[in-house]
Specification:
This protein is mostly beta strands. It is 10% helix and 43% strand. Strands 23, 26, 27, 29, 30, 32, 34 and 35 form an eight-stranded mixed β-sheet that branches. Strands 14, 16, 17, 19, 20 and 25 form a six-stranded mixed β-sheet that branches. Strands 22-21-24-28 form a four-stranded antiparallel β-sheet, with no helix packed on it. A hairpin with a 2-residue loop joins strand 21 and strand 22. It starts with 12 loop residues before the first strand and ends with a helix.
């Protein structure tokens, strides 16, 4: 530096030593800035200044404004590491005696007295998100405070809440609407929500990714078998939490019918075979299952264990032919019913439970005919080709079949037997496949033989007569005993009594 003769008031550097060639030099540096820091030396010439001794001007400046660095998104319970960054501005840089920077930390503008190092370490809590952190660097002078920062505490899920609260179990009809339910959880950052359902393998499959969930349950067996739980799965930064809704899916299926252990809704079986009938109705709640022989009008057999069995322990007969019905019933779903038929095949035979007229009385002559109707049990019976009449005269005997009592196995075999002359009277035998089936007798009307119907009428009249005589006798005996013992008294006043003499007690009773 050279000191000239310029006006001292306008110079940054002012030389104060006089005379100019003095050994000790004194000069002034005005308006000191960091740029003024450095090594100063003097002499009569530049060469003398470079070879002579000088002084170092040290200028202390404020450190650069502090700045906080570090991860601000920190999981609760872990350490936060905040670093206060600043740079010294004091000069010259080659001066080795500058003191090191020191640091101050502030929380909500309050100084932390014990925190004086560059890095501030602390455990993150939920409350950290409410604090404002800043720092300041100091050399000889203090820097400006840093901008305030805030910690973002990370946590969750803390809890999983399903709203509305489903309780221990939710009952829902198959095919009905389930929900809506909302899944909530306390998380930072927000958790990932996933609705799932239980599968037949025991794991859970995705249903929806939304927090709000509702589903219409389809009418499928898979729904009943698989969806026993609906789960809200919450994935957070710390862990995974779940909350389950237990489902009680209610349903009632159509009855399933089994004949001799095999699924069926119709059976054709020979007479004398054995039949085991079973009906199964699946449902929740467990339905009441009833079984009825509609044709036989038998009583219900019922069960509350999904299944009811009906066994014909004896050999089946033609009379077991008919329609059976299985009914599954529950309060929630009403009734489901399924009917099936059992068709018992049997050869024709005379119905012994129906009165059969076997004696006929008829005149004889051209065009005279006797109509014979025989009650028959058979299934099926559609023709009379296997039936043959044998008798006194067989010309022009006709046969046909008609239904009886609207029952499939009950029939009439109707025969028309001509009686043209007296030789037509006698016994006729109906054969089925060459075997005896039924006999009838046709008598002339003037025959002394009394028909079965006549005997029935006569017998009935005789029986009624005997019954009346018995009643009269008992009454007479009781009246006689009453008079003898005095238990029968006169019911009229004494002055109205008319006395008549009888020779014996029997005359008195007449």
């Amino acid at each position: 530096m050279q000191i000239g003769d310029k006006d001292p008031s306008t110079e940054k550097y002012v030389y104060h030593t006089r005379p100019l060639d003095s050994v000790n030099i004194q000069f002034e540096v005005k308006n000191i800035t960091v740029q003024d820091a450095g090594y100063y030396a003097g002499g009569p010439s530049k060469a003398d200044a470079l070879t002579g001794e000088g002084v170092v001007l040290v200028v202390f400046g404020k450190p650069v404004k502090a700045q906080i660095t570090g991860n601000l998104n920190i999981q609760v319970g872990r350490y936060a590491y905040l670093k206060c960054e600043s740079i010294s501005t004091s000069a010259p840089s080659y001066y080795k005696r500058f003191p090191p920077l020191t640091y101050s930390w502030f929380v909500n503008n309050s100084r932390l007295e014990r925190e004086v190092i560059q890095t501030y370490r602390f455990t993150v809590t939920d409350d950290a998100k409410y604090n404002r952190y800043s720092c300041q660097a100091k050399e000889t002078l203090e820097s400006e405070k840093s901008e305030e920062i805030q910690i973002n505490p990370l946590y969750g899920p803390r809890s999983v809440i399903i709203s509305p609260t489903p309780g221990n179990e939710v009952s829902v009809h198959e095919g009905g609407m389930f929900g809506p339910y909302n899944c909530l959880s306390d998380c930072n950052p927000p958790c990932t929500l996933q609705w799932k359902y239980s599968s037949s393998k025991g794991d859970f499959l995705n249903l929806s990714s939304a927090g709000n969930f509702s589903i219409s349950l389809p009418k499928t067996k898979a729904v009943r078998a698989n969806i026993t739980f609906i789960r809200c799965e919450v994935n957070g930064i710390e862990k995974t939490e779940v909350s389950d809704i237990k489902l009680n899916i209610q349903y009632l299926l159509e009855p399933r019918l089994y004949i001799n252990g095999k699924p069926s809704n119709a059976l054709i079986i020979n007479e004398t075979d054995h039949v085991f009938l079973s009906c199964f109705v699946e449902g929740n709640p467990i339905p009441e299952v009833s079984f009825l022989n509609l044709t036989g009008n038998q009583n219900y057999i019922h069960s509350v264990n999904h299944r009811v069995n009906y066994t014909l322990i004896r050999m089946v007969q033609c009379s077991d032919t008919g329609t059976f019905e299985c009914v599954g019933q529950s309060t929630e779903f009403g009734k489901r019913n399924q009917s099936f038929s059992v068709n018992v095949l049997c050869d024709p035979r005379l119905d012994e439970l129906t009165l059969v007229n076997k004696i006929y009385r008829s005149s004889s002559g051209p065009g005279v005919k006797v109509v014979v109707s025989l009650p028959v049990v058979a299934n099926p019976l559609t023709s009379t080709s296997e039936f043959v009449w044998l008798g006194p005269k067989l010309e022009s005997i006709s046969l046909n079949v008609s239904q009886r009592d609207n029952v499939v196995y009950k029939h009439w075999i109707n025969s028309t037997i001509p009686v043209p002359d007296e030789e037509s009277f006698g016994t006729y035998s109906l054969k089925y496949k060459g075997k005896d089936f039924a006999d009838i007798t046709i008598h002339a009307k003037d025959s002394t033989e009394i028909s079965l119907t006549t005997w029935i009428i006569i017998g009935g009249f005789i029986g009624l007569t005997i019954l009346l005589l018995t009643i009269i006798g008992v009454y007479k005996l009781a009246f006689r005993r009453g008079i003898r013992t005095g238990t029968i008294q006169q019911s009229q006043p004494a002055h109205d009594l008319k006395v008549k003499k009888y020779d014996n007690i029997d005359d008195a009773l007449l």
